[in-house]
Structure formats: C-alpha cells, structure tokens
Amino acid sequence: MRTIVSFDAGTSGSKIIARYRSVEYPFEVVEKYFVVNPSVRQLTSRSYRSQLEFSEDARGVSGVVSYVDPSDKEPVYWDVGETATRPGPLLVSDRKCENLLAKILGFLGYLVTQEVDPQELMELDLGILLPWDEFEDRRLLASWLRELLQPTVGFNYNGQPVNNIQLKKIDCKPEGYGIYKHSSSFKPTGVLIIGHSDSSWLYFYKGKMNLKLSQTLPETGMHDFLQELPFPITHELLAAKTIYEAGPNLKSKVLAQLTQTKSEQEIELLQQAIKDAKSQYWSDRRHQFKSLADVEQILVSGGTAHYFSKELNQLFKQLKGVQLEWCTSLMDEFIQKFDIQESARSQLSHRFADCFSYYKTFVAKLQKETLVQTGG
Fold this sequence. Notes:
This protein is α+β, with helices and mostly antiparallel strands. It is built from twelve helices and 14 strands.
C-alpha cells in the first residue's frame, strides 16, 4: 500500500496526519496524527557533525537533516524540531520554502526510521497545506521534493541515509482549503484561519476560489497579541499554551507559570496586562476584518481563532451580519477517530480541523483516481 501524509506546517507546530503500514506485528494499516515542534535552524557542517553526536538521544520527531540543495547542488544541514528550539520570540517573518522543505524531510525521516519498515520502498502520496502568502512557492517546493524523494537521491536523517522513498503524488493547497471542502457550499463563502503568526482569508463562490479576494492578514495571530504584553516572553509557544489554558477567566494558578515571583500582585498585573492587550488587539483587528469581502457564510478554524472565539463572533456579527460557523461536526469526527483525551480535545480539534478535512479529501481523491485507473 502507499503511504499518505497530510502536512500542515503552522508556526505554532506542524500538524500532520499519516496513513501507513505499521512495522510491528500484525503489520496493520495505521492512521495517526502528529504535532511537531515548528523550530528549524540551519547549521554549518561543523555544527551538524556536533549535533549528530546527540541525535541518538533525540526524542520524538526531532533531529538533524542533510541533503544536497536542489537550487545550487551544495550540501545543506538543518536542525529540526525540539532540538532547534531557542529562547525568546519566534521569528514569524522567517518562514520560507527552504525551512518548510527541512520540516517535511525531518518528518519523513522520522517516519521511515521509526514507524515503518526502513528496508522497504515507501511509495508516498504527499499533501501540503501552505499559508496563503507562501502558496505561490508551491511549484518550487514540489520540484525540490520530487528531486529529493526518489531512491537514487534521498537525504540523511540523524546521519542515516533515507533513500527508500518514492514520491508518487504531491498536492499543494492553501490553508483553509480543507475547511471549505468539508462545507462544499456554493454560496459566497469566506474561510478564516487564524493561526499563531497571521491569518488566511480564502474567498469561494460556486465551488471555486477567487484569488483576487483571498489574502493574508498580517499581524493578526497570537504572536502579535503576545507582543502587546509588557512581560518578558522567554518561550513564546509555552507562553501561548499557558494563556490558552488560563481561559477567558484568566485562572491565577495557570498564569502563575508566566511570572517570576508567583506572587498575587504579579499575577494580578499579568491578568490586567492580558485584558489591556486584548483591547488593543481587537481595536487593531476591527479595521482589517472590516475590509474583507462580503459573504453569506464564514467558516472559522485555528487555535488562535478558538481562543478569541467570543470576540470573533461578536465582531463579525457587527461588521458583516454573519454568524460564524466553527465546523463542530468535523472536530467531533476528528476527536472520535483518534480517540483524543478530554483534556486535549478543545485545542487539538480546532488546530487540526483544516488538516483533518484536507486529509479526508486527499484520501478520497486518491481512491477515486485508483478506481479510474483500474476500471473499477
């Protein structure tokens, strides 16, 4: 059977769903979701060799990747996942095709060496969701992957050669595409994905996406909200996770993790700072969202969207007279399929809604193509 991977490379973490045959007896077909640390860092050859000494102790989807750069045929080295994490704010403007290539190869290296039989040829169907402002790079990314993911070329993962992948099909879509396919409405429809770094707005009418009315909304993510806080952020993703967990009531016990003294006074200052930051954040967002094209329905997803759900519902009701749709049935299906623990359901289901729906659409498309080819 062919391995299928749906890859959504978000700033707060790569969301991935994969279907493959397990390397463990009884070698059943596995469908599994992964949340991978988004950190990526280019290394010098010397740093790469030093990092290899620690790669055997890496846990989860972390490690080092090396390959011959398709653009200039020079060897390049990358640290991906947890081991590439550095303190301080994320460099959200540093997203580029090369970084995404390293992330994808890092996950595929993990998949080949840890989850499937590394001695067998893995025929791969790869689907990728790209932020709208990176969608124009899809052909370049696809050409690089086609060059590297063939048995005669390959790459190295944690020092081990990975040359048993054969890319059979690659499909690139803008983030939000999965959400729309779940709806399949022919009405004028907007899809709003609010992530950690920014937001994507896709406009669909009669089943087709309007490129002119689709856009990226910069400085609308959790990253920019955190920048409003007058508190030092030593680990941005951890700070975001803590604020999510504190909820709308800003639970003191949870927020104490972000303070130095954990005193009641410092916690109260942080709570007020979050309230003030929210006010400023929504004052800035009002003008951006007001400029969006009028539609009859708006589908919403993303971890940051979930955190700001109350404000979003109120704002779009005022600005557009539209009640937001949160894809509840899709998220329930994801929770049931992967048996998500109750404590993680809310966050994971909102973060994975787009990736999960895209995965289902991609699998259905591949099955249909197989039937046509076999005359079934």
